[in-house]
Specification:
Layout lengths: L19 H8 L1 H8 L5 E5 L3 E6 L2 E8 L4 E7 H4 L5 H4 L9 E7 L3 H4 L2 H13 L4 H12 L6 E8 L9 E8 L4 E11 L8 H14 L1 H21 L10 E13 L2 H14 L4 E8 L5 E6 L1
Parallel strand pairs: 8-9, 9-10
Antiparallel strand pairs: 1-2, 2-3, 3-4, 4-5, 6-7, 7-8, 10-11
Length: 296
């Protein structure tokens, strides 16, 4: 099993003089600035020598590193209409999920992905019938900005051994100094029938998976490197330049919306699985608007 959610930092032997991580810093600095200024509305995640920028759980843009200093930029066709980007993307062969793929040079990136284009892509994503649960997941990310005690490091996490299954969110919680432990988070709406039982099996499987010694070593190496690169980019503006991830994984179910049904299902879940931690977010109208969370 391989676990790579970071960019190559090794300089190529021929032609290119920058590593892929250095290329992100130099050629996509304007896009990183846009993400940082979005207060969590946009989410940049490092992958295996490419990266995605997400909005409301959708991939707004995917950028891959090619040879000779070029890039492959992919945008879903539904999102690119009316942005100006579609005029350049439309001549390309559609990729997976009806995305259009364009090969560009580094000096063409800013014109293609300038802030006005990003705002238009966001507008188009808002029009799409996106899933409630994935939107709630994005709200959790944006409403929980990174801090030294707890931060979300990745979303939709998978590896070859999980065979297509994905953890909703992966977080890190402080264990003292620059030491951290993993927290696997499954996100469910209160109306989701999986909340009664199925989520317990999902969460137990993911926690057990990471706790395996061989798997843990790969996750540890991956996310220590992921953290360091994000810290250097300014995406994680935290105290430590680097961290050490130690053994121990906590599982957490986060429930949002449909509070009456959610409370009933969460109660049944904790009754049948008292070892599971559940946090429920709710909003109530009355003497002013009140937001809160209950935890177990």
């Amino acid at each position: 099993m391989e676990m790579r959610r970071y960019l190559n930092e090794q300089k190529p032997k021929k032609r290119e003089i920058l590593s892929n991580f250095e290329r992100l810093q130099k050629h996509f600095g304007f896009l990183v600035t846009t993400v940082k200024a979005s207060y969590g509305e946009l989410d940049l995640q490092l992958r295996d020598d490419y990266f995605n920028v997400y909005f409301r759980g959708n991939s707004l843009v995917k950028a891959s590193f090619l040879r000779n200093g070029e890039y492959a930029v992919e945008i879903h066709k539904k999102f690119s209409q009316g942005t100006g980007a579609e005029r350049r993307l439309s001549d390309e062969t559609p990729g997976e999920n009806m995305s259009s793929r364009l090969r560009v040079k580094h000096n063409e990136l800013h014109a293609l992905l300038q802030r006005d284009t990003i705002n238009k892509l966001k507008r188009n994503i808002r029009k799409v019938n996106y899933g409630e649960e994935i939107t709630f997941e994005q709200l959790l990310i944006s409403d929980n900005p990174p801090n030294d005690e707890f931060f979300i490091i990745d979303r939709q996490v998978t590896d070859s051994d999980l065979k297509g299954k994905r953890m909703d969110l992966l977080a890190l919680e402080n264990a003292g100094g620059n030491r951290y432990r993993f927290v696997v988070i499954e996100v469910k709406l209160g109306k989701n029938p999986e909340l009664r039982e199925k989520v317990a099996k999902q969460l137990a499987e993911y926690v057990s998976h990471i706790l395996d010694d061989a798997t843990f070593a790969k996750y540890k190496a991956c996310y220590e490197r992921n953290y360091r690169q994000k810290h250097e980019l300014g995406l994680l503006d935290l105290s430590h330049e680097s961290i050490e991830i130690e053994q121990g994984v906590r599982g957490l179910v986060v429930v949002g919306g449909y509070s009456a049904l959610g409370s009933e299902q969460a109660a049944e879940l904790t009754k049948n699985h008292p070892d599971i931690e559940v946090e429920q977010f709710f909003s109530r109208l009355g003497a002013g608007l009140h937001f809160g969370a209950s935890a177990r």
